[in-house]
Q: What sequence folds into this?
């Protein structure tokens, strides 16, 4: 599929480049995080959150909201799923990485989504982007099998296990949005070929896209 750049006008409906914070120390520290063969996500990593940039992100990007800094690292070339939050997510590329993105507005009333609408964007190493709350996204992809390291910044508590009871998927369908909730502040729409946990709503229609 075509890979555009985050500097292209086409990216503006999905997010923006964050240029009012110095992320260089975070990018450098990401070299100390693992690079597995699959994909590993950690929502909160103390050595990343101990960096001074954590305070800058909280103040300048999130308006003094408490944030967590983790990572999503590994090797991946497939879409597999799309998720969204009730707030923006900051991705800081420590190596070149590609994001497959869609718009929440294009999700159908039955919570299905056609993957032919997805667009792919390259985040060059050292670049930070804000992914808007209305943007569908999931794990990054890498180019030429070299793997990716991406720092992931979100409001504190996001992507942790749920504590309350929520609506279940029934007969393969999601009767209401609550059935898509897979973790705290994480609504997930999976693909049947995505290898996701049992009970995930499999609402992605069309090809499980591959770079």
A:
């Amino acid at each position: 599929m075509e890979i555009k750049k985050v500097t292209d006008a086409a990216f503006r409906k999905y997010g923006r480049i964050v240029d009012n914070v110095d992320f260089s120390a975070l990018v450098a520290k990401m070299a100390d995080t693992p690079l597995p063969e699959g994909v590993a996500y950690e929502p909160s990593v103390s050595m990343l959150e101990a960096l001074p940039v954590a305070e800058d992100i909280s103040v300048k990007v999130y308006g003094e909201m408490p944030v967590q800094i983790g990572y999503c690292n590994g090797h991946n070339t497939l879409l597999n799923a799309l998720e969204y939050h009730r707030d923006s997510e900051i991705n800081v590329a420590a190596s070149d990485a590609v994001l497959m993105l869609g718009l929440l507005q294009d999700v159908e009333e039955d919570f299905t989504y056609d993957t032919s609408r997805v667009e792919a964007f390259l985040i060059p190493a050292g670049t930070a982007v804000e992914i808007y709350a209305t943007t569908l996204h999931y794990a990054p992809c890498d180019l030429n099998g070299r793997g990716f390291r991406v720092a992931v910044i979100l409001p504190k508590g996001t992507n942790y296990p749920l504590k309350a009871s929520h609506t279940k998927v029934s007969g393969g369908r999601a009767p209401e949005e609550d059935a898509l909730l897979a973790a705290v502040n994480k609504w997930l729409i999976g693909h049947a070929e995505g290898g996701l946990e049992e009970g995930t709503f499999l609402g992605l229609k069309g090809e499980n896209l591959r770079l």
